[in-house]
Design brief:
The chain has about 260 residues and is mainly α. Helix content is about 80%, strand content about 0%. It has a single domain, classed as MetI-like (MetI-like fold, Orthogonal Bundle), CATH 1.10.3720.
């Protein structure tokens, strides 16, 4: 920690908890508590129950969760592949061209995600690429929205990468493809796994663009949460949100273990 004195460290931790608890921890705790509440008319809920979770097990929540996981995994893989390839290619470009590539990848973040969904809806509403009403358009939208994070993560890792490793391998006669597979990508593995986890988490929670383009047979869990709360079923929506958060955290914990092992390598 940059703060060395004991009193200053305590002050920093106190400020952290003062900001963290009401802004981040407390809202999440309220959602978790609401998922077990039978009613909530006072300061605290009453009538603790598991009925909301039993209803989820009998309803379409499992299907919606699988749809969200499948969408997030596919979109994250596509985003990581495109972002890594673009970052490696941009490394060889001139400064002006690299800035242009950076701007193109950051562009989806500079506009509302609803606009991204609408643009895809218009772009793929006519042959030969007629994707409206298909799961593919949802996956494409998620990939477009999260590719920027993968690109930026890999670009930052490449900027910190010592070129001596690549130069040494090339000096020993290794071909560019071999250097990329056996030297560069293993060194980038911690950043790649971190980018994959971030892309997955963002895709799992994406709602705005999804609402514009999802077909009825491909209903992600965030859309179902919105529909439940819009009908006034706040406790059922809270239970769905807890399931979404728990699934995302489990996947991120798995990714963090991969990242830790890669860091030791």
């Amino acid at each position: 920690m940059l703060v060395h004195s004991k009193g200053a460290r305590r002050a920093v931790w106190a400020v952290f908890f003062v900001l963290f608890v009401p802004l981040f921890a407390l809202p999440l705790l309220v959602v978790v508590v609401a998922s077990f509440a039978g009613s909530w008319s006072g300061a605290l809920p009453s009538g603790a129950t598991l009925a909301h979770y039993r209803d989820l097990a009998r309803g379409d929540a499992t299907t919606a969760l699988l749809v969200s996981v499948a969408t997030a995994l596919t979109a994250s893989l596509a985003a990581l592949t495109a972002g890594t390839w673009a970052a490696l290619a941009a490394e060889r470009l001139g400064r002006r061209t690299r800035r242009l590539v950076d701007a193109l990848f950051v562009l989806p973040l500079a506009v509302p995600s609803v606009a991204v969904g609408l643009s895809l809806l218009v772009a793929f509403s006519q042959p030969p690429l007629l994707l409206n009403g298909t799961p593919q358009i949802v996956i494409i939208a998620h990939a477009v929205l999260v590719t920027a994070f993968a690109y930026q993560s890999v670009t930052a890792a490449l900027a910190r990468l010592d070129p001596a490793y690549e130069q040494s391998a090339a000096g020993l006669g290794a071909r560019p493809g071999y250097v990329l597979r056996r030297v560069k990508l293993p060194l980038l593995l911690p950043s790649l796994t971190a980018a994959a986890g971030l892309c997955f988490a963002l895709s799992m929670g994406e709602l705005s663009a999804t609402m514009m383009i999802y077909p009825p047979e491909w209903l992600p869990l965030p859309v179902q949460i919105f529909a439940a709360t819009d009908r006034g079923s706040l406790f059922a929506g809270a239970a769905l949100a807890v399931v979404l958060m728990a699934t995302t955290l489990l996947v991120l914990l798995g990714v963090s273990r991969i990242r830790t092992k890669a860091s030791y390598r």
